[in-house]
Design a protein that fits this description.
By secondary structure, the chain is mainly alpha-helical. It is 76% helix and 0% strand. The structure holds zinc ion. Residues 102, 104-105, 107, 122-123, 125-126 line the site of zinc ion.
Length: 143
């Protein structure tokens, strides 16, 4: 009896490991795509030595070099940066074993949502709540 349970448990954790491996692969691929896009955009604004410097920094995840550059680059890259932050957060959670758990309310994020957004760290309800708050903050900052 005990042996049977052990077998079931180890199969479960193997399946979970396989799942985590697959998710990690998707996240890392996504990360590379975004970095590539970001570099292409930077290439439109920065040339020569400075471009190499910025690209090397992006590889290291150091976005401070972008912050000190022209505002227009920052604006263009802002959404890439946000997405990369989310992917890094998801990878961190994957390593911690808390992947797929909503950061705000602690419930499991649905598989359907994770399939579309593998780097989601909030469930749909919490995401909508956050968006509403962000919207209000945006409106207030314009006043
Ligand atoms: Zn939630």
């Amino acid at each position: 009896m005990d042996k049977d349970n052990e077998a079931v448990n180890s199969t479960d954790s193997e399946a979970a490991n396989e799942r985590a491996k697959g998710i990690r692969k998707v996240l890392i691929q996504e990360r590379q795509i975004i970095l590539k896009e970001a570099k292409t955009e930077i290439g439109n604004f920065v040339k020569g030595d400075e471009k190499q410097l910025v690209e090397a920094a992006l590889d290291d995840g150091d976005w401070s070099v972008v912050d000190v550059n022209e505002d227009i680059i920052l604006q263009k890259l802002h959404h890439h940066k946000l997405k990369l932050n989310k992917i890094d957060e998801a990878l961190r959670k994957l390593n911690e074993g808390s992947y797929g758990i909503c950061d705000d309310c602690g419930i499991e994020i649905s598989d359907a949502r994770l399939k579309v957004l593998p780097f989601a760290v909030h469930c749909v309800e919490c995401k909508e709540k956050r968006e509403k708050i962000e919207q209000v903050e945006k409106e207030q900052s314009f006043q």
